[in-house]
Amino acid sequence: MRCMDLYLASGKRNQIRFALILQGGHLGSRSEWEKTTALLSELMSKDTYQRVLGNRPLLFLFSIEDAVKFFESEEACNKALRQLRQAVQKRSQADPYIAGMVFEPEKGLKFLSSLGLDAVSAYSNPPYGFSRKEFPYEHQMQLNYSFWVECKRLGVPLIPTVNTGWDFRPEADPSIPYRNPEADWIAQATPQQIAAHLESAVTWVKTNPEICVANAILIYAWNELNEGGWLLPTLKEGDARLVEIRKVLREEEKGHQADQ
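Structure (tokenized):
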């Protein structure tokens, strides 16, 4: 919470909004879930909390299977999320928009029903091969796009993910399954490639409003440098990535204002 406390205390906090990603295996304890919902509802009531569809606080749930294990069943997890919704509604008079993060759209469809989620998203859409092979950034773009298209085919409400990259090699560890040192990776993208990918996502959201009802996009990631995905300034690139994505978003903002 140290970074959150610094952000909330900053006089510049109004310059950027925030949203929470809950990790299913790290939710405190079941006996203190009521305290946890009180904390979460307090954070989601902040004036800089990101909202969609008017006034609905945006919330992501990652590691859904771990959340189900934590609450011991899908039914119990559903009940816990309803308790969270009620706490937020009581404090803010707004129903949170909860997006479950999955790696397979079919699994997202299942959890939408069993857990009462509002949408599906993905923390990342990494390559799934284990041949220690490098793929071009265009391959990463296709992985993201395929996830969007499959969600559309299934009729699943979606917050699409845009990967800035994927390269797990700095974290390779044969003792941890998801850090397999044999895993494939994506070649580092240029700032211009990332901006072009974001632009394609913006267009996709605009042309698929029946799926992208929240009118939102998730970018992986701000600072996952050890996994090959980042936006923050670096010694090599400076703030080039931020400059390029700002161009895309400013153009979109201009177009939106012109439409109005």
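The two ends are 40 Å apart (CA to CA). The first helix runs from residue 2 to 9.
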